[in-house]
DNA sequence: ATTAATCGTGTCCATCGGACACAGTTAACG
DNA sequence: CGTTAACTGTGTCCGATGGACACGATTAAT
């Protein structure tokens, strides 16, 4: 369990000094990260092992340890590369609300492109420049509102929590045919069998099934959060 | 990777038929779950292994497989036992807002008592009766508001997302002296060094440090969510 | 040409989750 | 009161994992 934080910082933030002597490195951090991402996208984070990544790159697993101190650091690199820099929008919305909504939707899309990032970003960890860039964008969207520094960060944390929550439940629904889809059926069966023990839940479930379209949870929560922020911001402006 | 969902349902929802013949079982699911929880509370979920749990109970690891099909199911039992049934409140608040706030605070407290539940509840999974009981309570708190079934569930998901988000960042702060506390310092150093690249973030950080009291992120987000729900509910009532 | 740094690799280890066979224990049935 | 069938706990074995370490090959600076 060598989670050397200092080493992780060096890996994520550089500098990456080129070796002066010795054979040319056949790999580099970027290729390694991309190989890991490729595997994680296809088979989930559980499918990512040193040997698996090494095989993808055509080398032995021990070759990887020349570049990365351990698996934890590899995953950190993968997250940083997978999330990438915040995509610059051509027409930047003017108000804080539009900017934050855009930002959240971008983040949500990024999480859905790489669902394993959920598993990889559990618990305390070191963030890289790309990830901090995202944070910067969100916090700066709230500049000019009457919110204090702590409040601006709290608001961003709130949004990130929602993105993560929805990503998780979206993964549970999953595309039809996958083993994840089986879960929906199991839950439905459970609700039918235990309906009397959970009347409100069963009613809500039935009503939701009848109304048809799910997948509104994302927009619902996003608008609630933005509404809640608007209430506070309006009240600060007066 | 035998994640037999049907078996998990049977374990969590019963029935647990007593064996008619053969030696008395020396263990039961409850003791096993509690042993696992004890370890996870002390050393995190990573410290929970079959051998470790078995040692805690004074048996061999293979003895556990008589009760639990695999580690995934053991973790499911641990989560169910750790979260426990929703604690009945003596004076139940009258309005939906008070009820939801109470509920969220209880859930937050439960997550903080067992931080590893964050790691254990990633991704699609089968929920047990205790967990569904919590959901039931939250959904029923929204009965009588003009919200539809899907909306009531979306609102609960939104709250859970916030609880999880804050639990995660609370764990990052951690008590002083722990290796987690080191992260705050690293992040602070990073902000100082890269301040120009992330001006808004650095400003918010500095302002937050100056204002002193952090730990408001929880209440901040909770009130924003409730405010946002109130906006919708008010508008539905008219 | 020599040397020192850096490379990729092979070998070794502890630990993990899990499969399986085996012997001991116990309750039901004749 | 035997017999038997079911069930228990355990020991042994396996493949895969993350990682330590030493080795020989390669290359740039001297």
Automatic annotation (TrEMBL), chains A, B:
Pfam families: TetR_C_1, TetR_N
SUPFAM superfamilies: Homeodomain-like, Tetracyclin repressor-like, C-terminal domain
GO molecular function: DNA-binding transcription factor activity; transcription cis-regulatory region binding
Keywords: DNA-binding, Transcription, Transcription regulation
InterPro entries: Homeodomain-like_sf, HTH-type_TetR-like_transc_reg, HTH_TetR, Repressor_TetR_C, Tet_transcr_reg_TetR-rel_C_sf
Biological process according to GO: negative regulation of DNA-templated transcription
Domain named HTH tetR-type: residues: 26-86
Start-end of DNA-binding region: 49-68
Name listed for the protein in its UniProt record: TetR family transcriptional regulator
Organism, as annotated: Streptomyces bingchenggensis (strain BCW-1)
């Amino acid at each position: 369990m060598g989670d050397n934080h200092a080493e992780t910082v060096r890996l994520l933030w550089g500098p990456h000094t080129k070796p002066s002597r010795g054979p040319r490195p056949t790999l580099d951090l970027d290729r390694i990260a991309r190989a890991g991402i490729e595997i994680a996208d296809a088979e989930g984070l559980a499918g990512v092992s040193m040997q698996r990544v090494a095989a993808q790159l055509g080398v032995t697993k021990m070759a990887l340890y020349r570049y990365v101190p351990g698996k934890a650091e590899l995953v950190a690199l993968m997250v940083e590369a997978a999330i990438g820099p915040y995509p610059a929008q051509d027409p930047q919305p003017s108000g804080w609300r539009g900017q934050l909504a855009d930002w959240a939707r971008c983040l949500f899309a990024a999480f859905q492109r790489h669902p394993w990032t959920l598993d990889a970003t559990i618990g305390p960890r070191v963030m890289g420049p790309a990830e901090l860039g995202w944070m910067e964008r969100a916090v700066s969207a709230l500049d000019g509102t009457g919110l204090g520094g702590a409040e601006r960060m709290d608001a961003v944390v709130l949004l990130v929590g929602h993105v993560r929550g929805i990503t998780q439940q979206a993964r549970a629904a999953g595309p039809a045919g996958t083993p994840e889809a089986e879960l929906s059926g199991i839950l439905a069966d459970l609700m039918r069998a235990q309906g009397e023990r959970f009347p409100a839940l069963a009613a809500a479930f039935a009503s939701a099934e009848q109304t048809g379209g799910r997948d509104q949870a994302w927009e619902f929560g996003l608008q609630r959060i933005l509404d809640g922020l608007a209430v506070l911001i309006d009240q600060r402006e007066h």
